[in-house]
């Protein structure tokens, strides 16, 4: 089991009221998407914030392709507008996860990541307040607008996700094996 992914899934599974996620890169493994959708079905408010501006456009396209599944499940999706956001923060009720791990396939399978899990109601309230301030500087994604995107955009998103979630992992593992020889 990959400990960082397990930690995120456990905190999401234990949430009773709210989950706020601020991620610089978001193209998670399917199990993580299912965990978020199950949380919504349990009555948990789930909000996801990712940057509108990024240093790697392919990561934004990969994330954008997942919006439909999330929005249909009841997840609120926001794009942070002022600058690139490199945050990696999850706030679930009174628990925070902060560290180097994004909710993306690379962080879950290849990169060496470190996260801290902190249960502290006062710190969680402060983090929720900061998240709310960032939401005020973000654009909400609406399902109608998302569905109206062009065929070219849909293909670009699907290709980007496949490239990052499948091919990137293959190349990275190959490179790691080569270096270990």
Explain what you see.
The chain has 181 residues and is α/β, with parallel strands linked by helices. It has one domain: Endonuclease Chain A (Endonuclease, Chain A, 2-Layer Sandwich), CATH 3.30.870. The protein is built from 8 helices and 9 strands. The protein has helices spanning 3-14, 30-41, 57-64, 67-73, 105-109, 121-135, 143-147, 151-180; strands at 18-23, 26-27, 45-51, 76-80, 88-92, 95-99, 103-104, 115-119, 138-140. The chain has a 7-stranded mixed sheet with strand order 8-6-5-1-3-4-9, sandwiched between helices. A two-stranded parallel sheet has the order 2-7. Helix 1 (3-14) packs parallel to helix 2 and helix 3 (57-64) packs across helix 8. The longest helix has 30 residues, at 151-180. The chain is globular, with a radius of gyration of 16 Å. The chain starts with a helix and ends with a helix.
Write the layout of secondary structure elements.
Blueprint: H1 3-14, E1 18-23, E2 26-27, H2 30-41, E3 45-51, H3 57-64, H4 67-73, E4 76-80, E5 88-92, E6 95-99, E7 103-104, H5 105-109, E8 115-119, H6 121-135, E9 138-140, H7 143-147, H8 151-180
Parallel strand pairs: 1-3, 2-7, 3-4
Antiparallel strand pairs: 1-5, 4-9, 5-6, 6-8
Helix pairs in contact: 1-2, 3-8
Gross morphology is: globular
Share in β-strands: 15-25%
Helix content: 40-55%
First-residue to last-residue Cα separation: 26 Å
From the 3D structure, determine the CATH topology. Answer: Endonuclease, Chain A
Q: What profile does the largest beta sheet have?
A: 7 strands, mixed
The CATH class name reads Alpha Beta
- Strand segment tally: 9
The value of Rg in angstroms is 16 Å
